């Protein structure tokens, strides 16, 4: 039987997690038909069968992390397809019971049904007519009778034996006297009333396998949280002018086939901040004893998917226009949500933005996308009364930004200055126009 080994999926990939087998043992699979889903570096890929075959045995179960080149399954020749389970007839064989002939064996000389003594005794005890049963190997056995009794007889009701009647003795007559206090039941004997549950009894707990994308996310979070020294800085931003600019630009963007949200503007402002404060676009090489200032500006966009939080990347965002950034965010986010994102689209970011969208919130403490040293949390834009430059109360639009940074690399003053630079560009979008939006 040929061994099915985990192939080399990508450059530098040395292992993969078995996420899901697409076939069960005994099922046939055609050449180039997907056989198993494997995850590596947050990218899930389908591995096809190299030939027409039958999945004989699974060696690496779901959730196992297998090295590249290791045997994960055994395949059989396509001609060795699993035979269908026998059944039919009286329907009892389909339930894993005996496959009985339709006619009971009969001794023609005596005109009686052939059955073992034990079968006859049990049939008499159960009130079963042996002629209605079927058997094998020329006779009916006790097993056939037990099968019939289990399938067609209901459990007899247990009739309680009446207790013997004991003549009652006349009780001594006691003269009743009025009591000044009512009879009290001791507190220890009073059972507390059980509260009535609304909607019936609670459902049983559900166990969800901790593997695949969820386990990879957990590993990344633990590494980031236990390695970097997090601190968070929060600022409120008046985006009233940005709301007006975006509203005017929406129609022009729609004419280009682009749905324009606030996120591309935020990316542009972040890029201006990263170029002014390059320490935020960096990573720490502890083994080499150095801080690496990244000269590429690739922005990760945290995206919620059915498999968990993923971070597709807009590569070289500083070389893209506002509309190009909007299009690229939509493209890579959709690829992540549908599980079609490539390894390149999920790696290589230098700074990450996570937006809660309409959920918003007031503030958050985002966890770094390690080995990056900064991540920006974006919260909802809300209409609130604000005081304008003329000291008048007007309706404005405010948004909170919360940035988490690695204090080993970015000092508090640098982190705060970076976020203030982002704030400056968001509060005055004309600065984005001047910088080549």
Secondary structure blueprint with pairings:
Elements: E1 3-5, E2 15-21, E3 28-29, E4 34-40, E5 43-48, E6 53-58, E7 65-67, E8 71-77, E9 106-107, E10 112-113, H1 117-126, H2 142-152, H3 213-227, E11 230-238, H4 240-255, H5 263-276, E12 282-285, E13 290-293, E14 299-301, E15 303-305, E16 308-310, E17 313-314, H6 322-337, E18 351-355, E19 374-387, E20 393-406, H7 412-427, H8 430-434
Parallel strand pairs: 14-18, 18-19
Antiparallel strand pairs: 1-8, 2-4, 2-7, 3-6, 4-5, 6-8, 9-10, 11-20, 12-13, 14-17, 15-16, 19-20
Brief summary of the model shown:
The protein has helices at residues 117-126, 142-152, 213-227, 240-255, 263-276, 322-337, 412-427, 430-434; strands at residues 3-5, 15-21, 28-29, 34-40, 43-48, 53-58, 65-67, 71-77, 106-107, 112-113, 230-238, 282-285, 290-293, 299-301, 303-305, 308-310, 313-314, 351-355, 374-387, 393-406. It has 437 residues and is an alpha+beta fold.
Mean pLDDT: 82
CATH class descriptor name of the largest domain: Alpha Beta
Q: H/E element string? A: EEEEEEEEEEHHHEHHEEEEEEHEEEHH
Strand order of the largest sheet: 11-20-19-18-14-17
**SSE class:** alpha+beta
Which band does the percent of strand residues land in?
15-25%
Largest sheet: 6 strands, mixed
- Compute the separation of the termini in Å: 61 Å
Question: What would CATH call the architecture of the largest domain?
Answer: 2-Layer Sandwich
- Poorly predicted runs are 80-103, 152-159
Note the overall shape: elongated
Could you estimate the helical fraction of the residues in percent?
A: 10-25%
Report Rg. 37 Å
Number of helices: 8
CATH superfamily (homologous) name of the largest domain = Chloramphenicol acetyltransferase-like domain
């Amino acid at each position: 039987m040929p061994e099915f080994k985990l192939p080399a999926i990508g450059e530098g990939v040395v292992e993969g997690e078995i996420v899901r087998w697409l076939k069960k043992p005994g099922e046939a699979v055609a050449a180039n038909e997907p056989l198993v889903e494997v995850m590596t570096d947050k990218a899930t890929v389908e591995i096809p069968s190299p030939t027409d075959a039958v999945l004989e045995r699974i060696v690496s179960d779901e959730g196992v992390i297998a090295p590249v080149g290791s045997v994960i399954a055994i395949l059989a020749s396509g001609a060795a397809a699993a035979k269908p389970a026998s059944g039919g007839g009286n329907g009892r064989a389909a339930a894993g019971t005996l496959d009985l002939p339709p006619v009971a064996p009969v001794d023609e000389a005596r005109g009686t049904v052939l059955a073992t003594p034990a079968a006859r005794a049990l049939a008499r005890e159960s009130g079963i007519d042996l002629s209605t049963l079927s058997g094998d190997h020329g006779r009916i056995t006790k097993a056939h009778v037990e099968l019939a009794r289990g399938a067609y007889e209901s459990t007899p009701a247990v009739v309680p034996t009446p207790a013997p009647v004991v003549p009652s003795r006349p009780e001594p007559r006691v003269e009743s006297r009025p009591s000044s206090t009512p009879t009290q039941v001791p507190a220890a004997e009073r059972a507390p009333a059980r509260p009535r549950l609304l909607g019936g009894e609670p459902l049983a707990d559900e166990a969800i396998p901790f593997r695949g994308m969820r386990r990879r996310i957990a590993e990344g979070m633990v590494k980031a949280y236990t390695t970097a020294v997090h601190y968070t800085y929060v600022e409120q931003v008046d985006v009233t002018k940005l709301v007006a600019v975006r509203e005017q630009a929406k129609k022009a963007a729609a004419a280009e086939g682009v749905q324009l949200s606030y996120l591309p503007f935020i990316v542009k402002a972040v890029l201006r901040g990263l170029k002014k404060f390059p320490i935020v676009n960096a990573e720490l090489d502890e083994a080499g004893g150095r801080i690496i200032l990244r000269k590429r500006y690739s922005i990760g966009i945290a995206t919620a998917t059915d498999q968990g939080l993923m971070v597709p990347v807009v590569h070289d965002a500083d070389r893209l226009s506002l509309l190009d950034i909007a299009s690229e965010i939509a493209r890579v986010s959709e690829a992540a949500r549908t599980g079609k994102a490539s390894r390149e689209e999920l790696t290589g970011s230098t700074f990450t933005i996570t937006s809660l969208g309409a959920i918003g919130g007031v503030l958050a403490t985002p966890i770094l996308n390690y080995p990056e040293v900064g991540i920006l949390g974006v919260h909802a834009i809300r209409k609130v009364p604000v005081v304008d430059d003329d000291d008048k109360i007007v309706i404005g639009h405010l948004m909170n930004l919360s940035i988490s940074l690695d204090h080993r690399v970015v000092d508090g003053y640098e982190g705060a200055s970076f976020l203030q630079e982002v704030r400056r560009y968001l509060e005055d979008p004309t600065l984005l126009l001047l910088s080549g939006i």
